[in-house]
Batch of 2 targets.
Target 1
Amino acid sequence: MTRNTFSMLWAYNMTEFERVLFIDSDFLPLKNIDDAFDCGEWCAVVSVRESQNRFNSGLQVLTPNASLFAALFTGGSLGRYGSYNRGIQGYLNEAIPDWCTA
């Protein structure tokens, strides 16, 4: 993974906000998505192209947390977590294995 791959992780460090909705540039909401903020502390959508036990990191609703940000950023920098696709989506799926219950 390149250094720029980790740019999406900065959403986890936006602690001045109660909730953050991260949407990749290739997502196109077709209707109001305000209800997304009603999910738990962290949620994402199931990846339709991959296994049902993986999430698509291109749409995440999260509660910013500086310590989680540090763990994710440091873990990736040190190679603590792998990536099944050599990208941020694979990395986050490895780093947050219990995402279905998060």
Target 2
Amino acid sequence: MHEVALMVFYVSEGTFVLLTNIPLIIVIYFSRYLRKQRYLTLLGGLCIADTLNAVGYLFAGYYRISVSEFAGNASAVLPQSTCFFKPHVIGLYAGYQTTSIMTLLVTCERVFAVFYPAKHMELLNRQFVRMSIVAFVIVFILGSLGGASILEQTQHELIHIYCYVMASLGSTLWSFLLLFRIFNIGISVLLYLLIVWRVKQMSKTHHSAQRFSRVTITIGLSIVSALFCMLIPDLVMYLDPEHFGKYHMWSYLLGLNKSLLNTFVYMLRHEEIRKALCRIITNWSQCCTSTTSESSVNNNNKPQWL
């Protein structure tokens, strides 16, 4: 019963993250109001990664609730290879990588912005977004290929029907995934310390650092949430899997909460995003009102004998 309650929470929070992140992604990439705000593009990348992660949690909750009636049986097992290709395992395997990769990418972008502001603006207007997407795809493919090669070497055994990610991937691939996230987020934390130092130096020498502060603080808050919700739990789980492994589901929940925190950070810190969302909602409501009014007028103008 405890497992089912936690899965209901997975479904509820995963759905909420989807309902809040998808409008953010649409506004950042497709709204004409934010078309000139190119620095928001990588924030949109973080939203996409968090959305992919939330999809994995949503599928995990739905699947485990659907098989919960069989979970108590001793025969409720599946081959490890079968579990690996369950939608929630694939979603979380991809989401674990994308969230850490995007965290590292946006941090590198901020490093480039504070150390080379002139070149950063030039690249941001021309090729930086494309370069970031290409780098993301390359790293993700390399990570997936590395994981797949490790999967072929793991011993396939029968595991619980819930298909927990840790058991579905196997100890070797799970360790690879943890180290991958630990490395990316750890480097991001170290780079952000360098960013903070550079911004302080710029403020002391009377250079204009204000235009970097808002996005830099937003990225910093995202890195802090990744530090406490992903890096520290991953590190503890990697160093002491036997004792911490039994709490792995709560570790997953921390990762989902990180996605939720990011959504609120973006909304609260960036007024332009809120305004763009309000404009779209206002235009949509006006369109619906106009359509309803026209329909009412047409009905009133119909001959009474019809």
